[in-house]
Amino acid sequence: MKILFVGDYSNLHNCLASTLQQMGHQAVVASNGSNWMNTERDINLYRKSNNPVHTFIYLLRLALALPKMRGFDIVELINPIFLSLRPNKVMWIYKYLRKHNKKIVLSAAGTDYYYVKSCYEGQTLRYNEYFVDNNLTDFAKHHKKNTQLWLTPQMKSHTTFMVKDLNAIIACLPEYFATYAPLYPHKTFFVGIPIDTQSIKPNFITQEPEKVRFFLGFHKNRMEEKGTDKLLKAANEICSKYPDKAELKVVSNLPYKEYLKGMESSHVILDQIYSYSPATNALLAMAHGLVAVSGAEPEYYDFIGEKDNQPIINVLPDQNDIYNKLEWIVLNKHLLPKLSLQSRAFVEKHNDKFKMAQQYLKIWEKL
Predict the structure, then answer these.
(1) Model-level pTM?
(2) Residue closest to 184 by CA, chosen among 196, 198, 169, 197
(3) How far apart are CA 340 and CA 290, in angstroms?
(4) Residues 218-259 pLDDT 10s
(5) What are phi and psi of 106, to 5 degrees?
(6) Which among 131, 109, 189 is positioned nearest to 317, based on CA atoms?
(7) Which bin fits 126, alpha (ψ -120 to 50), beta or left (φ > 0)?
């Protein structure tokens, strides 16, 4: 097959593309490199800023790229807003891609109109980055203007038209599947996040460490959205209480490859608190043999059918719960070698990139 990926989040599309190439398919990634992550791509669609010069350069890049974005069996879009443009301009490009390619598929992989709407209505998820216990989160309070942009009439019109028109929706997390499946049951599918387990040599925790090395990597503009501010607070408190048993390494805004190197010498990665399931950061850490503190609600394990191996330390969006879970890790650090092995085994079973690519191919071939 011949596949074009437009846009990328946390290396999702690039990982799929490289896997498909290994399997004998043609795959091209046109993206901004996940912004600061600078992930690999074949067609560079990076927009440095909104100033006139950078805008002109971006539009020129896009104009030169469009002839290369024709004639594909499948075009997989990362989001309804898959370019750094206003919805009306994105729609023009969407219609161009629709006209010059066979099938269009959406990766439900991040914030969009439908996800934000379901979060605010509270009908899909018990808690999320906008609401906890029917109260607005700090993120929702402090970023109200930006979050409301997803719910404007223009965004609603743009997204509903596109989603009705495209051929399929593939959600990479159960949260996104739960958003789209009730609305579009016949064309919504779930495929987990692909992880390149073959190229990742795990650095297993082979014995109880003298000190638990916590690792927290974040983007400065997304701390409240992911809850890393609360994770950081709890981790600092634990390291102060147990200075001989725990230490913390913190990094921010690192490119993708540097981020991976930064976490390799750690034992436990502190990921996020509002998710029901582990996303790319947690899964990558687990593939390396680290233990992940992230989302792993019972609904998640039920959804993927995993009853036996549940190694993720699930945290709720509650400061006391986060503190207690981190303290539990420090006081039970003898369990880290076992959790390390289980974490790697979990990713190999549920997120191996070849298994995920095969699932994508099955969906695309049906189209």
Answers:
(1) 0.94
(2) 169
(3) 6
(4) 877 888 999 999 999 999 999 999 999 999 999 988 877 788
(5) -105, 130
(6) 131
(7) alpha
